[in-house]
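Fold these two proteins, one after the other.
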Amino acid sequence: MDLKIDNKTVLVTAASSGIGKATAISFLKEGCNVAICSRNKENLLKTVTEIAEANLPEPAWIVCDINKEKDIENTIRVVTESYGGIDILVNNCGGPPAGYFENLKDEDWKFAFNQVLMSAVRFTRGVLPGMKKNNWGRIINITSLSVKQPVDNLILSNSLRNAVTAMAKTLSNETGEKNITINNVAPGYTLTSRLYELAVEKAKKSGESHEHILASMANAVPMKRLGKPEEIASLVTFLASDLAGYITGTTIQIDGGIIKSTY
């Protein structure tokens, strides 16, 4: 299927591993110019090497702590100067720390606020002028199943990812006439380092092995398995295409059926 996005420039944030990395690779396979960023230079270089070994074009890479406004501004500047603009933005970030309400301090909330919500706000603010000028753009936010079904012990993620969803829905109404679509992808239990870390933390408290925790997560999914990052990436790539040009302001779950809600 020709998604008609070859030669479009894509910026994928937090893309040195997991869903972000898989998304960058998916866009490279579609013939896009791809830029990736992460705060960890070593992981970025490892990802670039793996991509080159797979005989794919080397993505541009920028070290960026998405909690820092200046880093975000620099990333947008570098990509724009390198490619002439940014056509597609994928706002992705790691999850904030787990924890119950009474155990979290203001500093935890402020960290999560910058990581989850303000990173999406700042990257979006930086790319919108160019998209409006070109009368075309795609913004896809990677959120979580928690925007539709809160997850125990993840109150920071539950709260702030919902803020991203609300922002995207509101903003989609403001940008539609400029042929800019804004959507959210809400992954369920996907086998990434983040899920592994959560399983390890839960195992420490429960006394069970993290392998058992992961198996229990998979068993809770109607499809009886965990998701693959590549499956999330396929949906993100489609939403960025011309074929998805009439889809905007939506949140699409990709969760193997675990969310119980009918809407």
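Now the second one:
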Amino acid sequence: MTVFEAAPGEAPPADAVSPRESTPDAPTSIARLNATIRDFVAQWGTVWVEGEITSWNLRAGNVFARLKDTRSDAQISIRVWSSVRARIPADLAVGDHVVAAVKADYFVKAGDFSFTVSAMKHVGLGDQLERLERLRAQLRQEGLFDPARKKPLPFLPHVIGLITGENSDAEKDVHRNAELRWPQVRFRTVHAAVQGDRCVPETLAALKTLDADPDVDVIVIARGGGDPQTLLGFSDERLVRAVAAATTPVVSAIGHENDHPLLDDVADLRASTPTDAAKRVVPDVGEQRALIAQLRSRATTRVAQRVAHDIAQLEQLRSRPVLRDPDPLLERRAQEVWLLASRSRDALGRTVDRAGRRTAELRASLRALSPAATLARGYAIAHRDDGVIVRDAADAPAGTALTLTVDRGSLRAVSEGEVAEAAAADRPGARR
């Protein structure tokens, strides 16, 4: 049988039964049970644990917080007394990844089990930043930060996809400032965790949903400010590559101006704050109305100037003498036309006369040389039926059918042969 001694000042009643000796007829007291648990826990030494801060409440200089395991849902309650708090980093907050030296502690009065922290520090922040810089260099070498691959934002998106924390200040800032600039703007908001283990998978799922929506023209990923540890999710390689592969333009609005996760480099537009994102995504309706009024005024002025210029030119043309009294000019031109027409008629008449005389001469020459003139003097042309013209009496022996062409018509004849006297007269050397 083991007997646990009570701590000084908290001794159990003298008649209390040890927990191991308790029976239904002789139960132990709660004070004795709690003292026994406390004494057992007090034997544990200090251990170093790693986890994520999920709550951090400051009361009367002491901190009451909870640590969550980085790979499961297991959690523990921790207490940081004011004397220890002065020795740990002052910037510790919810979402930080830390290692802590803890010792188990059991409070007898409340039956509360927790761990007292004697030391705490950030986990590998320097190593994480170094890994981020190596990843940044790799992505830059792959061209994911190249301005040429960034997609332009639409002038006036019909629907804005928004990925942010539920009921967050970032969501309110984006909605309020966008609606102030363009009251008819529409949002499709998908909430996601903006820190912790759920940040990356939920943001990836939200990005996939909005990128697949044909109505969404631009996607804004927004989160308020925070320490580098809480913004690590927005430098995750999976998320960065998913944003680079998205077909819809993506705007990064993470933290404040000095915050610079990798998402800022790969996004199509980096906004310094969620408020700045709202101003960059939608135009200001007042500015656009003023611009339209200015353009209309400029257009009206230019048209008025052009009309006035054309009127002045028309008046200048009308004031010229030739247009003011065009009759003298027309009279001079009419006289010139009459003279030119007269000369043309004279020249044409002379040309016709010369051509007539030349035609008469050619007609007389043609008539003199024409066979018809010879036939008119009583001559005839004799040709056989085969078309051969008879030039020698020997070509038409007796009985040859002949056609005789005279001045007026043709007639048929039959040759009786060569006439002796005529033939003798036609022989060379004959007397005539």
